[in-house]
Amino acid sequence: MNKDPLKLIVAGIAAAYFLWCAYDPYQWHLIDGVNLLIHEAGHIVFRPFGEFMMIAGGSLFQVIMPALFVGYFSYHKKFYSAALVLFWVGESILNVSVYAGDSLALRLDLIGGEDTLHDWNYMLGTLGLLPSTEKIGGAIRVLGTVVIILACVGAFRHAERKDRGEGIEM
Asked: What are the tens digits of pLDDT across the range 99-133?
């Protein structure tokens, strides 16, 4: 099939934006507000599974939610749309890497203020992994970057024109 110029442009813009996110995940990005809402909802969703899972649930849920959309689009063979949403998964993982990497420094402004429990400080402390904070945050950042690169490849690879003149698959 021929490549759709509009899909290639959208893929290029998404690739540039999300590669910038990977380059500097410490900046506040447009999608981070959505990630924060989903993160907070994750604490409620995972609450029935105990204290540790409730706290871990914020970071888990903010990655699981966009991944569900990737799964939905993939199941329906809308691979271009799946690749575009995969960018969000990667950025969300980057967002988690920043939070995990802050578990010793505790410099991030948390919603509840200074006395709020830092999720990753609690989790890594509970698991005896606080001394490995930098390595864990770095590994999560690499994972997020790899996901974004895979999204780039997928978006450009699947930027195909449909026979019936359809536009972006949604």
From this structure: 999 999 999 888 877 778 999 999 999 999 999 99
Closest CA to 7 of 164, 159, 166: 159
Is 164 within the bounds of a domain? no
Q: Which residues of 146-168 are buried (b: 16+ CB within 10 A; e: fewer)?
A: ebbeebbebbbebbeeeeeeeee
Burial class of residue 74, CB neighbours in 10 A (0-12, 13-18, 19+): middle
Looking at the whole model, is its pTM more than 0.70?
yes
DSSP bridge pairs for 160? 3
pLDDT value of position 163: 44
Asked if residue 165 belongs to a domain, the reply is no
Which residue is associated with the tokens 């999720």? 119
Total domains in the chain come to 1
Q: State pLDDT tens for residues 38-74.
A: 999 999 999 999 999 999 999 999 999 999 999 999 9
Q: Is residue 168 part of a domain?
A: no
How is residue 19 written in tokens? 């590669």
d(CA 35, CA 90): 12
